[in-house]
Amino acid sequence: MADVALQSNRAAAQAARKRSSLHKMLRRKSTVAFLMTLPLILLIATLVIYPAFYALHLATLNKSMQRFVGLSNFEFLFKRETFWLVVKQSCIFAITAVIFKALLGFIIAHFVHNIPAKGQRKWRGMLLVPWVIPPAMSTLAWLWLFDPSYSAFNYTLAFFGIGPISWTGDANWARFSVILVNIWVGAPFFMIMYLAALKSVPEQLYEAAAIDGANWWQRIWYVTLPMMRNIIAITTLFSLIVTFANFDIVRILTAGGPLDHTHIFATWAFRIGIEGSDIPLGASVSLFMVPILAVAAIFILRDVNKRGNEA
Amino acid sequence: MTTVTIDKTAPTRKVKYGSMSRDRTWALRWSYFFLAIFAIFSLTPPIYMLITSLKSSAEISAATNPWWVFHPTLENYVGLLTSNQFLRFFWNSAIVSIFVVTITMLISVPAAFALARMRFWGSTVLATGVFLTYLIPETLLFIPLFKMFAVIGDWSGIQLINRWYVLLILYPTLTVPFCTWIMIGYFASIPKELDEAAIIDGASWFQTLTRIFIPVAFPGIIAATIFAFTVSWAQFLYPLVFTTSTDQLVMPVGIITTLIKGDVFNWGQIMTGALLGAAPPLIIYAFLMDYYIAGLTAGATKG
Q1: Closest Cα to residue A87, out of A276, A281, A269, A263?
Q2: CB A190 within 8 A of CB A102
Q3: Separation of alpha carbons B254 and B268, rounded Å
Q4: Under a CB-based contact definition with an 8 Å cutoff, are residues B292 and A128 in contact?
Q5: What is the pLDDT of residue A300?
Q6: Which pTM does this prediction carry?
Q7: Preceding omega of B239 cis (within 30 degrees of 0)
Q8: Helical packing angle, B20-53 and A117-127, nearest 10°
Q9: What does the alpha-carbon distance between residue B190 and residue A100 come to, in Å, rounded to a whole number?
Q10: How distant is the alpha carbon of residue A288 from its chain centre?
Q11: Which of B39, B48, B143 lies nearest to residue A55, judging by beta carbons?
Q12: B33 touching chain A per CB within 8 A
């Protein structure tokens, strides 16, 4: 200390030099870049990565979160019938919805692509409305359309002698309803992605195919699909993730009912973890989404990197 | 649907000696026909919202033709727009969305600039990490986050749960990774010569960003802003988990928890509320459709 006091002059000079070197360091490209990305890194680390691992930790605690219980939460889940119901329903829900969304999106994109370019904007605008409305709000409209006593669908179907369908009351119809609403919300997204891809297929390829005598089906199979393979794969994988992790639609439309038949992982985790305040068990349930998400993510990442290398 | 289209269009293609233009005309007619069907399917729920919102409760419970309004009334709109509670939801939603958009852009634009232009140690890994983060759904994180905030509340006395501002911390986890990702794309497409010229002229990195990159990539910034706004306006899970008192709720949760009282559904008001809740994104979409689509499709998002 005394030493420093005595050589205060030199220390000041040193400090000045240090400050200038600090200044220099602050001006260095990598430091600037690091500072610019720091908020992003902090956000991801504290609010995404940490909670993800915290979920793993929570899943090993008992209900009051005071005792380590190892894997017994998972053991408990495996013994419950409802859990297997949820697994089954999650898979049915995600796979059926994604297949129909992709199929419907593909068909609609073709029709939009077929009509003269002048009118395309108008049609596209109308067809994208389901995807713009917040899902929670539009699901309310569906809930009202499916209402047990005032269902507008049943009113219409009664004219054809079809008779009142219990849209959200019967297990199978409820499964159908949640999938239908999910398709309604998600199909426009596929449509817009495929439409963009369709526009990028060179017209000459179709002309060549037509000259070779290909019919419309062969043109789709041998020209359109191979050209769109990448975009179809990536859109489907994305949609699979989002659909698998869906919450809003099921929560509002059926809240998992009747008798837990339409629960998927997210809604059941909410029911157990937040409503039932058994946080560890809820965390264990939501962790079951990880494997399928990881698989989809690996495929997407491979595709994104491939795309990056091509560019 | 496929089988139908196959059956219907097949004959028009089989006419080998028919003229090409007649072929086209039929293909066009079928296209319009099916597009009309799909448009009806797409627009039924929003139109039904509008129809119901114009009905009085008496007309709704009278079970007349649900697809028609016999005695149009604005009482639902008046009822909601004069209710302090509903205006509070709207206000909360607006405040949260505006703040989240600002926070998102402040974090993601500089980060995207650094990741796109200033190669540094670990930048490629970080870019991939940002993308991966975007793939983690909120349904995986809400339980640990809830517990985390509860623990923080116990330790430091900062009450976060059941306060609307907790959403300002939570929503950026949904918006920032994606906005960063699309901004990286937009920034990477700017020719290198532009920023090299700026650096040679003595501009700092910060000046390069504000004077060159932001103006040039402005369409991308609008698209990202719209995306961030839409996501924060529509988010349902986080406010449902983290806020419960009626004065802290945002639109979607507010409508669902307060207008549905037990088994009593006031459908006229619910549909009005839903329509008003859907209005801001729909209005933005109507005016800025191209930006909207560009933003939401740039990195292949939800659906």
Answers
A1: A263
A2: yes
A3: 16
A4: no
A5: 75
A6: 0.82
A7: no
A8: 30
A9: 38
A10: 15
A11: B143
A12: no
**Quick one: pLDDT at residue A13?**
57
Which stretches of chain A drop beneath a pLDDT of 70? 1-27, 303-311
Q: What are the chain B neighbours of A52 within 8 Å (beta carbons)?
A: 136, 140-141, 144
Q: What integer best gives the mean pLDDT of chain B?
A: 81
Cβ contact A184–B42 (<8 Å): yes
Judge contact between B227 and B295, C-beta under 8 A: yes
> Regarding beta strands B264-265 and B260-261, do their DSSP bridges make them parallel or antiparallel, or are they unpaired?
antiparallel
Is A274's CB within 8 Å of B173's CB? no
User: Least CA distance to B122: which residue of chain A?
Assistant: A34
CB contact under 8 A, A32 and B114: yes
DSSP structure class, residue A61? B
Residue B142 has, within 13 A of its CA and on its CB side, a CA count of 33
Write the pLDDT tens digit of every residue in B19-65.
Answer: 566 777 887 888 888 889 999 989 999 999 898 888 887 777 777 77
Q: Taking phi first (over 0 means left), then psi (-120 to 50 degrees means alpha), and beta for anything else, what does residue A213 get?
A: left
The residue among A200, A231, A121 whose CA lies nearest residue B297 is: A231
Beta-carbon separation of B143 and A282 below 8 A: yes
Whether B166 and B243 have beta carbons less than 8 Å apart is answered as yes
Look at residues B270, B121, B148 and name the one whose alpha carbon lies nearest to residue A52: B148
Give the burial class of A63: count Cβ atoms within 10 A of its Cβ; 0-12 exposed, 13-18 middle, 19 or more buried: middle
- Nearest Cα neighbor of A253 from A164, A136, A171, A80 is A136
Cβ–Cβ under 8 Å, residues A285 and A74? no
Contact between chains at B297 and A128 (C-beta distance less than 8 A): no
Please tell me the predicted confidence (pLDDT) of residue A182.
92
Best interface-test mutation with B: which of A26, A27, A36, A248 has the largest number of B CBs within 10 A? A36
Residue B260: in which H helix or E strand, if any? strand B260-261
Distance from CA of A16 to the nearest CA of B (A): 23
Probe site for chain A from B30, B49, B140 (most A CB atoms < 10 A): B140
Per-residue confidence (pLDDT) for residue B301, from 0 to 100: 41
Q: Are residues B146 and A296, on separate chains, in Cβ contact within 8 Å?
A: no
Summarised one tens digit per residue, pLDDT across range B210-257 is: 888 888 888 888 888 888 898 899 899 999 888 888 888 888 888 888
Compute the nearest-CA separation of B35 from chain A (Å). 7
Cα–Cα distance between A266 and A115 in angstroms, integer?
Answer: 41
